[in-house]
Amino acid sequence: MTTVQDTTAPMTARHPQAGAPLFKRLWIYQSTRFPLFKTATLLAVFSAASISVSAHLAHRPLPSWAVFATAWLVALIIFFQMRAADEYKDLEDDSRYRPERPIPSGLVSLRLILGMAFAGVPLAAAITAMLDVRLLLLLALVWIWLGLMTAEFFAPAWLRRHPVIYLLTHMAIMPLIDLFITGCEWLPHGAHPPAALALFLALSFVNGSIIELGRKIWAPENERPGVETYSALLGPARAARVLMAVSVLSWCFLVAVGYAVGAIWIVAAGGLVMLALFWRTLLAFARHPAPARQKKLDAMAGMWVFACYALAGYAPFLAGAGA
Asked: What average pLDDT does the segment 281-288 reach?
């Protein structure tokens, strides 16, 4: 991926709370790098919607609370492990170009964050096995792919020269995570997922790409040396148009999922309203890529993904109530 070039020497900075007690330092870390409340809330919606879709596709009632709790807790651990993997991959660039971040500034150590991530492996495995030991295979697939991502598929330089392939390979973890989450519902009923689940997994893949694009489309004055962004690669207006095209693809998969769960009109209409709001934000940014509009674009990308899962997972209940 194209970046803003810089030839300056690495910068150094010392976090003012570097000597604070561990709990306080971890609290500061999560607030900037892994906002726990926000992430846990979004993953609760994401995991519950995924389980709901799986149950509706198979015409089964919703499972017990234990299924929802397992999917949510394990997803939360996986997403933290993804953050830790990014910290490992980005340490050199962060030390050089973003020294204010918690790890290069000395707030917390990389060893501590990686240690917490590795500690999550037996914890997630134990939680998973208590529900169904067969789910460990699906969980292992997620971790294997995460390991390959962390190693950048053993071709980091080549991947960075091919940003589209970089995006596709890294976002492939999203349907794998969703395969595990939905598996918490369908695997106890048999060895095969319900028909049409592939549509929902494809939606997860595209929505993961939307989140990634949304957080890496920046206003020109916010571009920083060493920071890889799609706006630096394509230009802000063109990058926004690419995101518009991807959002349409996401809406198409959303409608297909809505049809499969028997709530096509609610899903299609609700998705179209959100798509119009998303496009309005993207067009405004393309015309004038200001920092405030960059922030709104990123927020709307998240809102779009949130709306997709909410519609796919919960619209069938409205459709059933109105039947």
From this structure: 98
Query: Angle at which helices 65-97 and 173-186 pack, to 10 degrees?
Result: 170
**pLDDT at residue 10 tops 70:** no
Query: Does 9 map to a domain?
Result: no
CA atoms within 13 A on the CB side of 60: 20
174 token code pair: 């999203």
Same domain, 158 and 27: yes
pLDDT value of position 225:
84
Q: In sequence order, which ranges of 8-35 are alpha helices (DSSP H)? A: 22-33
6 lies in some domain:
no
226 contacts 306 by C-beta, under 8 angstroms: no
CB distance 280 to 271 below 8 Å:
no
Q: Residue 133 burial (CB < 10 Å; 0-12/13-18/19+)?
A: exposed
Q: 10 Å Cβ neighbour count for 289?
A: 22
38 contacts 302 by C-beta, under 8 angstroms: no
pLDDT value for 322: 44
Q: Tell whether 46 and 150 lie within a shared domain.
A: yes
Statement to judge: residues 153 and 202 lie in one domain: no
Give the angle 273-275-279 at the CA atoms, nearest 5°: 120
Cβ neighbors of 292 (< 8 A, separation 6 or more) are none
Phi and psi at residue 3, to the nearest 5°: -125, 165
Q: Which domain holds residue 120?
A: 22-190
Same domain, 183 and 211: no
59, part of any domain? yes
Mean pLDDT across the chain: 93
Distance CA 241, CA 70 (A): 38
Taking Cα atoms as reference points, which of 303, 308, 294 lies closest to residue 249?
308
Quote the pTM value. Answer: 0.92
Residue type, 59: H
- The torsion angles phi and psi of 285, rounded to 5 degrees, stand at -65, -40
Q: Both 75 and 202 in a single domain? A: no
Q: What is the pLDDT of residue 12?
A: 55
Q: Kindly tell me the number of DSSP H helices and DSSP E strands found in the chain.
A: 13, 0
pLDDT score of 11 more than 60: no
